[in-house]
Structure formats: C-alpha cells, structure tokens
Amino acid sequence: MSIEERDPVSGYLTTGHVWNGITELNSPVPRIVFAFMVVTHLYALVAWFLLPAWPLGQTFTKGLLGIDQKTAVAADIAAANADRAGWMNALATHDFDAIRADPDLMARALATAEPLFGQNCQVCHGANGIGGPGYPRLNDDIWVWGGTADEIATTLRVGINADHPDTHFAQMPAFGRDGLLTGAEISVLTDYVQTLGAGVMADDPSDGALLFQTNCAGCHGEDARGISGSGAPNLTDGDWLYGGDAANLRHGLVAGRQGQMPSWQSRLTEAEIRAMALYVEGLSGTAP
C-alpha cells in the first residue's frame, strides 16, 4: 500500500510504504556523511600529488614527498643485517663462558638455534631432543662424545662416521656375520650383557664375562661403563640406543652397529654451530 503522508513525530515525509504496520520514513542523509565524503575526496586529491599514486607503464608517479617504501624496507633490512652481523660474529669468536655471561647474547644464541634444531636435527633426535630408536636422546645426561658446549660443537662440525677428515669414528664389529664368534658364544654374551645393569663382577669366571673381556672391553671398558672418546656406550646404565632386550642385543652382536651423523660444518656457519651447541647443552637433563 502506498500513501503519501508526513510522520507526526519527526516531521519527515514518508515514502508512502507501510510494511506490517511500520511506516518507512524518507529521512535525509546526515550532514556528517557529506562532510566525511568531502574530506576523504580532498585527502585523495592531495595524496595523488604527495604520495606515489599513478601507474605509468613500467613506473609510477613518485609523489612530491619522495616516499619510497621499497627503499625504506631495504634500509631496515640493511640495519637488521648489520646488527645481526655484530652478534653473530660474537657467537663465532667469543668463548662459551663469555657468551653465557652475556644474557642478551645468550638469548640471541638460543633464539637462533631453536629453529635450526627443528629444521636440521629434530627429524632424527625428536622434538626437544627426546630421541628415538637408533637416535640418541639429547635431553638426558648421557653423552658418548661429550656433553659440554665445546664437545658438542666439535661433534657438530666433524659428524660421526661422516665424510669429514676429522670425523668421530665408531663401529661395533659384526661378530656373527664376520665369523668372529659362534652362535653359541653370541647367545652366552647376549645373556651376560643383560646382567650388566648390576655392574661387572670382579674376577667373574663365567663364560659370558670371559667373552666380554676378550671381545668387548677394549671399547666398552673392563667395567662396561664405556671409554670416553671411543663412541662405545656405557652398558650398565640401562640406557639403550637400539634396545636392551635379548633380540636387539643379539642382532647388534651378529650384524654390528654403526650410527652416523653428518658433518654440519659445510651446512651451518660457525656461529650457528656454536649457537646450536649451547642449545643442545641446555637440553641435557631436561628429560622428565
């Protein structure tokens, strides 16, 4: 229904439309809307002259103010790189005690290393260094090649059984496959190694003890606690890289073991390696 009338309250004409008893008013547009439109159009007009605005083929109008965000971003990046170069050089050249004594530098080292660990190490050693089958945990306090930042940095540089000329080298012989021990001897030795959680008994005359001292003590030590720098783990602490059950122990004795970690010297800078060493050192002892 269309009826022309004036609203008695506001005095505005209606549109003549009534919808379910509600009359539609023909209200004027508020003046503030027109003012806003004028201001925004004036601003746009001024901005066309002051700021980069119009495309001109392969270029654009530069604006009277000469503002160039690309140049500003490039300057910011250059400043950030200069600042980064300073503290990265400090990471590469300062000794670890000096880095630890500088809270800001230490914080930068850990912030740099955390994503590097995620990108390069986590796939094998697990999130937060929890390890996995065949890959050692980094969040305990058990270290075959040393757990200080200096020792960890060296291991990162040279790798383990890697192509670096100074790489850490460790290999457990394949006693069964290469005929060094008989199947029966391997069974006896397997049973004996499973008892080492209680430690090595002095002057033990058993066949297992004799086989161990003859074939294994050269790397794992006469007390089976490992020999520093040999890459041979402690066999008395209950921490097993490949598993301490009979099947895994026997497999290791038959087929041997030779873990591998790449040399990171050609993949990471010296500063990144040292930052990573501090980060991994900090993981030690955090296992629940």
From TrEMBL:
<dbReference type="InterPro" id="IPR038414">
    <property type="entry name" value="CcoP_N_sf"/>
</dbReference>
<keyword id="KW-0997">Cell inner membrane</keyword>
<dbReference type="InterPro" id="IPR032858">
    <property type="entry name" value="CcoP_N"/>
</dbReference>
<keyword id="KW-0408">Iron</keyword>
<keyword id="KW-0375">Hydrogen ion transport</keyword>
<dbReference type="InterPro" id="IPR008168">
    <property type="entry name" value="Cyt_C_IC"/>
</dbReference>
<comment type="similarity">
    <text>Belongs to the CcoP / FixP family.</text>
</comment>
<feature type="transmembrane region" description="Helical">
    <location>
        <begin position="32"/>
        <end position="51"/>
    </location>
</feature>
<keyword id="KW-0479">Metal-binding</keyword>
<keyword id="KW-0677">Repeat</keyword>
<dbReference type="InterPro" id="IPR036909">
    <property type="entry name" value="Cyt_c-like_dom_sf"/>
</dbReference>
<keyword id="KW-0812">Transmembrane</keyword>
<comment type="pathway">
    <text>Energy metabolism; oxidative phosphorylation.</text>
</comment>
<comment type="function">
    <text>C-type cytochrome. Part of the cbb3-type cytochrome c oxidase complex.</text>
</comment>
<keyword id="KW-1133">Transmembrane helix</keyword>
<feature type="domain" description="Cytochrome c">
    <location>
        <begin position="203"/>
        <end position="284"/>
    </location>
</feature>
<dbReference type="Pfam" id="PF13442">
    <property type="entry name" value="Cytochrome_CBB3"/>
</dbReference>
<dbReference type="InterPro" id="IPR004678">
    <property type="entry name" value="Cyt_c_oxidase_cbb3_su3"/>
</dbReference>
<keyword id="KW-0349">Heme</keyword>
<protein>
    <recommendedName>
        <fullName>Cbb3-type cytochrome c oxidase subunit</fullName>
    </recommendedName>
</protein>
<keyword id="KW-0249">Electron transport</keyword>
<keyword id="KW-0813">Transport</keyword>
<feature type="domain" description="Cytochrome c">
    <location>
        <begin position="108"/>
        <end position="197"/>
    </location>
</feature>
<comment type="subunit">
    <text>Component of the cbb3-type cytochrome c oxidase.</text>
</comment>
<keyword id="KW-1003">Cell membrane</keyword>
<keyword id="KW-0472">Membrane</keyword>
<dbReference type="Pfam" id="PF14715">
    <property type="entry name" value="FixP_N"/>
</dbReference>
<dbReference type="Pfam" id="PF00034">
    <property type="entry name" value="Cytochrom_C"/>
</dbReference>
<keyword id="KW-0406">Ion transport</keyword>
<dbReference type="InterPro" id="IPR050597">
    <property type="entry name" value="Cytochrome_c_Oxidase_Subunit"/>
</dbReference>
<dbReference type="GO" id="GO:0016491">
    <property type="term" value="F:oxidoreductase activity"/>
</dbReference>
<dbReference type="InterPro" id="IPR009056">
    <property type="entry name" value="Cyt_c-like_dom"/>
</dbReference>
<keyword id="KW-0560">Oxidoreductase</keyword>
<keyword id="KW-0679">Respiratory chain</keyword>
